[in-house]
Structures are given as C-alpha cells and as structure tokens.
C-alpha cells in the first residue's frame, strides 16, 4: 500500500471515530459505537512501533503463561510432569493454578476457569486458548455491541456476557461524575457469571474507567476469585515519554477522557482489595526494527521505560 493510501485510510478512520464519538462525554455507548472499527483504529495507533497488532495481543498472554509456569516449577520441583524439558508451558501454567503434585492436566478433573475482564470483541481469546488449551474461558465487557461481536466468532468453550448497567464505564473524573463514581464492591450490580475464577486477565481497561471506581472493581473481582487465584493487569506506562506523547497528541475517541494509571497506585489498590502483589514489571521496550534486542526485555523489566507495564497478584 502506498504512503498516500495509508494516510487517506488513517484519515478516514479518524473521521469515522470522531463522528461517532462527538459527545462531550463518553459513556458505555462509546464502545458500542466503535465495536466494528476499534481493531482498525488500534492498528493505526500502534503502526509506529512496526509490530503487528497480533504481537501486542499475544505477548501479554505469553508472558502470563511464562510467569505461571515459573511458579509451577518453583513450587512443584518433585513433579515428574514439570521436570521434563519438553513440558508445554501451558501445562505448567495450568499446574500452578489447579493441579495437585501428582496429577497432570489430562488426569485432573478440574477445569481451569479464566476471566477476561473487559474482553472487548474477543480478539485475545485465540491466544488464551493457545496458551491455556484446557481452560474454560469467560469474557465480560461493558459494551453489549462488543460482546455480540465476540459471540459471533463462535469460539468453543467461551462464555461472553455484558456487565450490567452500574459497572464503571468510560468517563471523566469531573464533578458531574461524582455520584456515579461513589461506588464500592457492595453497590455494584451482581456479576453476570456465578462461577469463581482461577485466573483473571485485564488488559488496558482501567485507564478507560474513572480512578474513583478502581478500588470497587478490584474488590468485586477478588470476591469472584478462588483462593490463590492469579490476577494480571496490563496497562499503558505513564512514565514512558514516547507513550505519553502518543497518548496525549492525537485525538483518539476510543481514549477520550482516559486517565493513565500510576503503577504504584494500582499496586496499593490491589493490596487493599486483598491481593498479594509482586513488583510491577515493564514491557515492550523495542520497536520491530530493533527486534534483535528482544532478549534484553526481561532483564530490563525493572526499568520504567517500557511502553506497557503489568501487575501480578494472588488472591488471599
């Protein structure tokens, strides 16, 4: 595709989003309006990195599986299934969450239950299935249109449901939102699933919701998780100057009224909600042109210059 065509296409996407999001304040309908176009807009937004959109979708699930596999090997050193060099990472991850020391995935009567909170149109589902093939996967989102789009993809063993009205949506943190933001876990509507979960994955959701609602959401999620269940939250790094530049420079209706989330504050809120947390880790340091440096990403995860970061917690 020629550069002029790319610019025209990007302009058309931008105009479409602005036209569909010209309200002064965005609400739940924000994502309803953009459900069919978000993928294209997001691809344009990250095009400067050189990485395809699929890279950003998969790396988070891959990293989550890697961390859980490490936990499994550390906590179950005597398990023969984990001592084999060719043990699949997803089996290790499953073991870290569910399996007694003497069982393998195939022998376990338990089914790993994973929640994708803020699942959007279900784009990450194939990667959750890839790295956790034996799991039962649930997805929730505030946008009913996004949920309908996800359901249309007909993935096996996937359950999608919209969050009921009253759960935090995209909004500003202004005075007219104060009554809405004055929520706690006890005032939120019932969760759409009765199941409790072994693993909860949240990606780029919290910066779309008002900061005053984060504590209530974390407490409500904690109530839906089994003891020792794992929580992973991926967010945009507010300390990265390039990320902040892109985030602030362009008028992106999908990020209208968004607030970047401070990792220290998120860590504090997670602990207050009942999670044992580890140090936040930074990711996505290099564009595709510098992919030969990717082996350095993990040693650099302490450095607050990655484009993203994630928090990992265990439900106590």
Please give the largest β-sheet.
8 strands, mixed
Rounded average pLDDT = 77
Run of helices and strands: HHHHHHEHEHEHEHEHHEEE
Tally of contiguous helical segments? 12
Derived from helix and strand composition plus strand pairing, the structural class reads alpha/beta
Strand content: 15-25%
CATH superfamily: Vaccinia Virus protein VP39
Shape: globular
Distance from first to last alpha carbon: 52 Å
Under the CATH scheme, the architecture is 3-Layer(aba) Sandwich
CATH class label:
Alpha Beta
Using only C-alpha atoms, the radius of gyration works out to: 20 Å
Number of strands: 8
CATH topology: Rossmann fold
Helix content: 25-40%
User: How many domains make up the coordinates?
Assistant: 1
Point out poorly predicted stretches.
Answer: 1-27, 79-87, 170-182
Blueprint (SSEs and pairs):
Elements: H1 3-20, H2 29-34, H3 38-45, H4 53-75, H5 80-83, H6 89-97, E1 113-117, H7 125-131, E2 136-141, H8 144-151, E3 158-162, H9 178-181, E4 197-203, H10 214-223, E5 225-236, H11 241-249, H12 263-273, E6 275-277, E7 281-283, E8 308-315
Parallel strand pairs: 1-2, 1-4, 2-3, 4-5
Antiparallel strand pairs: 5-8, 6-8, 7-8
Helix pairs in contact: 4-6, 10-12
Please summarize what this structure is.
Helix content is 37%, strand content 16%.
